[in-house]
């Protein structure tokens, strides 16, 4: 499942669904909420897959512009058809063998490969 971001950072780029965790919100609840808000889908049990630091450089000598710690989960889809919501302009199922046109960040590609292995979709 991929979404196209509608706001910075990475506005207009395709990525995995995700977003900010609310104060006091458990990480798994945030992941489920973001899937519903951004893509309109529900999933079964979540399993921690990876933790990734996304750092966007800022002006020279001023440090990073953005630094996000991303918690990636893997789960199986249970219901809903992808449709954009919230800060997303597009949501779609993508063929994992044809991801090149989406121009995904290398870490997203790595996480997708991990998820496919974890789900037993690749040897």
Estimate the strand proportion: 25-35%
Q: Name the assembly state.
A: single chain
Roughly how much helix do the residues carry, as a percent range?
A: 10-25%
Please give the radius of gyration in angstroms.
Answer: 15 Å
Overall description:
With 123 residues, the protein is of the alpha+beta class. The chain has one domain (2-118): Nucleoside Triphosphate Pyrophosphohydrolase (Alpha-Beta Complex), CATH 3.90.79.10. It is 21% helix and 31% strand. It has 2 helices and 7 strands. Strands 2-1-7 form a 3-stranded antiparallel sheet, with no helix packed on it. A two-stranded antiparallel sheet has the order 3-6. It has a two-stranded antiparallel sheet with strand order 4-5. The two termini are 21 Å apart. The model has no long low-confidence stretch (mean pLDDT 94).
